[in-house]
């Protein structure tokens, strides 16, 4: 194959060489036939040279004009015909390319390049039989030429005659001796024909050629799998592993066999055994870890695989404590598995050994927030500020921790920093929504409204922002119709959200729609997730409906839930 490619790369140069040679010879031989004839040949050579130059510059139309002019003066010259054929081939005109290619080959039947050109034209136009006949004509003059034989074998393959192709490949083997690439071609042909014994013979020949080469053994193992011979594939890979126990590609190929047979313990043990090897680079170990992790992701229901994946990732994390990617993938896995403490332990290790790893800080703070460990986040404030000052996620979760613990000035500071960082629109919408909440608590109502409006511009589907903005508008009896629209959109998106139902009910209350208010706020209570505000609101609604008995019941429930609401005692009395 290499020889054939090399030949194709030099066709243009050969065109110039042969054409010039033939025209020069023709001019020289005809010099005695008269000056007029000599002038015509000289002019033909000028047109030919200019045409070749145009062709090299890819100006095919101009090349065609000049070469046609040369052809008019020397129509039998094989070099001119060959050059015309080359131009038509480059232009995709296979009919004219074949015509002039045939003229060149007939004029000089011993020139293999002319035959190769004509055969290539026939192949491209789908005339494989004609291509093979052309190659056979050339092989009569050059029976051991590898360029011709390779093209003939390829033509047979394209024509679907795989046995004939292998016959030609056998001729090549007689000339070159045993060759891995040629045996591989024969294997593919026999395999496609379902001739397994012959295909195995070619495999063994390939294996004998380079028995100690890992790449060869890996390739052969995959070919065994194509034949359905898994045992031979496994044995070949085991041999490769014995030659180099640290080669990750061999281990991955073995792992695929273990996976196909659900040999999860073999899979995990194979990986764990090499993760402790200090001579294997962490990047190579990472290949194996990612591989088994991807298998677990695709088969999450297989508990044994999950256990083995956990063992592998834990071993990787502990054996490579300073390799940050090892710790991050471990944290990701533990979070996915719900093993929060292991994840936090891993992320703490990263932020200690590589304190400027901002993604690790973001993951650590997010995980602490999901566990409601707000004081832990606040205690890490200074470290996060030093090592992840411009990380939007780190700033966001730090700000949220201050927000839910009623430290609103700090919350505003961190959320403003997070809002200034680039990020996805939906994430930035969450930041601005939370910033609106903080500013509301600080009585910065104008700035709070700006934050909510920005949140909704960034993500019109941010239902949390719609609900909070609507509720705060209702508290101020401001733009109640607009607040109603926002609350209805939020409730439509999440009809079982107690906070959203309460907001919608409370806006109805503010508008004097007491029955509607009662209906929505009772639905909020019935969800089982109602907060103290909801209980108090329901008491207010009953009071407005002229039902003091039910009003006292719900106010009392609110007071029991939050004894600090002493003002409710007055309402109850």
From TrEMBL:
PANTHER family per record: LIPOPOLYSACCHARIDE ASSEMBLY PROTEIN B, TPR REPEAT-CONTAINING PROTEIN PA4667
Keyword vocabulary terms for this entry: Repeat, Signal, TPR repeat
Identification of the protein by name: Uncharacterized protein
TPR repeats: from-to residues: 429-462, 532-565
Domain of life assignment: Bacteria
InterPro entries linked: CellSynth/LPSAsmb/PSIAsmb, TPR-like_helical_dom_sf, TPR_rpt
Record has Repeat as a keyword: yes
Cross-referenced Pfam families: ANAPC3, TPR_16, TPR_19
Keyword rRNA-binding: no
Span of the signal peptide: 1-31
